[in-house]
Write a structure and sequence with these properties.
The chain has 173 residues and is an alpha/beta fold. The protein has a single domain (3-172), classed as 3-Layer(aba) Sandwich (Leucine Aminopeptidase, subunit E, domain 1), CATH 3.40.220.10. The protein has helices spanning 31-40, 42-50, 93-110, 130-145, 160-172; strands spanning 3-7, 17-21, 65-69, 77-81, 115-118, 152-157. The longest helix has 18 residues, at 93-110. The protein is globular.
């Protein structure tokens, strides 16, 4: 599986695409979402606003993905996905999180992306336990990438604690 764990600010990666752990409105927020919007500049917000709403205030439902240019980011594209909010693990959170990874890979393949980085989707303000999220992510990516070995994927962690968790999940796969 062409997947690796790196510890770096995702906004500094010069890849074909970086994944944004977004909110359903795609209009920026905190954490990685806010950082990506700040570095990308106002063009990203304008591109997100131009995406059609599928429900009032929702441009990207949980588990789906949308693609925009990267604007001032070194990455060519931003793939926005909305992870599930953690409610204890009994509301289908694992399947929704897996759908995020599958949707991002499908969109990447559709747009001829060869290299991409994922943050720890839903592990910030959405409260998903990182150990559980890492297991879901690695298993889903292993399955999704079996048909797309040309895709180089990096699991991007902002700190050493998170990098250790994700590396452990990758080692267990």
């Amino acid at each position: 599986m062409p997947v690796s764990v790196i510890q770096v600010d995702i906004t500094r990666l010069a890849l074909d695409a970086i994944v944004n752990a977004a909110n359903p409105g795609l209009l920026g927020g905190g954490g990685v979402d806010g950082a990506i919007h700040r570095v990308a500049g106002p063009g990203l917000l304008a591109a997100c606003r131009a995406l059609p709403e599928v429900a009032p205030g929702v441009r990207c439902p949980t588990g789906e993905a949308r693609l925009t240019p990267g604007f001032a980011l070194p990455a060519r594209y931003v793939i926005h996905t909305v992870g599930p909010i953690w409610h204890g693990g009994h509301d289908g959170e694992a399947e929704l999180l897996a759908r995020c990874y599958r949707s991002c890979v499908a969109l990447a393949v559709e747009h001829d992306v060869r290299s991409m980085a994922f943050p720890a989707i839903s592990c910030g303000v959405y409260g998903y336990p990182p150990e559980q999220a890492a297991s879901v992510a690695v298993a889903t990516l292993r399955d999704a990438l079996s048909a797309h070995p040309e895709l180089d994927v990096q699991l991007c962690c902002f700190d050493s604690r998170m990098a250790a968790i994700w590396q452990h999940a990758l080692n267990q796969a």
